[in-house]
TrEMBL record:
Domain of life: Bacteria
Boundaries of every Mycothiol-dependent maleylpyruvate isomerase metal-binding domain copy: 14-138
NCBIfam families on file: maleylpyruvate isomerase family mycothiol-dependent enzyme, TIGR03086 family metal-binding protein
Organism listed in the record: Antrihabitans stalagmiti
GO MF entries: metal ion binding
InterPro entries assigned to the protein according to its UniProt record, in alphabetical order: CHP03086 (IPR017520), DinB/YfiT-like (IPR034660), Maleyloyr_isom (IPR017517), MDMPI_metal-binding (IPR024344)
Record-given protein name: TIGR03086 family protein
Length: 200
């Protein structure tokens, strides 16, 4: 764990990431569910399904709930009920699970191949997942980015701890190189294999 990640305010980052995901999903218009996203194989609906399932997987790893009922990496593209409810019902148990993690706890389990990680990294990975998919959806529907440089800087520190092995699984694409100066949000997105200026 680096000095940067040791100083992360992980509870604040997690709450901000959860808000970003919920707010962005709430903003999806009736005619936007089948739009393409920066996740090239998935529509807006599929990214929503994936993001919700990932949150449930983190909750389950912490001992809350049974995890998602479908494969997060094979989202159907059809939501039974409300997407707002789907995401809310995924975030709530996940937030509750992390709230029960004591401040002095050193490590926490994750659904990642990494397994147990320092709490700041484990919770940061959960936050990163929610935040980047909130950005994916926002970009697809033409909404403002829900990230910002402050949150992105915190999540970039986490990404640098966990992402490289995950590229081997196809979870993240190769780094998108910048041709000039870039702020924390752009750097964060590029590190995760996303073009900050992506358009459909």
């Amino acid at each position: 764990m680096t000095d940067t990640t040791a100083n992360l305010d992980w509870r604040t980052a997690l709450a901000a990431s959860h808000r970003a995901l919920q707010t962005t999903v709430d903003a999806i218009g009736d005619d936007q569910w089948d739009l393409p996203t920066p996740c090239s194989e998935w529509t807006v609906t599929q990214v929503v399904q994936h993001a919700a399932a990932d949150q449930l997987a983190y909750a389950s790893a912490l001992g809350v709930g049974d995890g998602p009922t479908y494969d997060p990496f094979s989202p159907s593209g059809a939501i039974d009920g409300s997407a707002t409810d789907l995401v809310r019902d995924a975030i709530a148990p996940t937030a509750s699970a992390w709230a029960d993690v004591a401040d002095d706890r050193a490590t926490a389990p994750t659904p990642l191949p990494h397994g147990e990680l320092p709490v700041e990294i484990a919770s940061g990975a959960c936050a990163l997942d929610a935040a980047v998919h909130a950005w994916d959806i926002a970009r697809a529907i033409g909404a403002p980015s829900p990230l910002g440089d402050e949150l992105s800087a915190q999540l970039l520190a986490v990404a640098r701890e966990i992402v490289e092995p995950l590229r081997n699984y196809g979870v993240y694409a190769a780094i998108v190189e910048s041709k000039g100066e870039a702020g924390a949000e752009d750097t964060f997105l590029r590190y995760l294999g996303r073009d900050p200026h992506w358009t459909a």
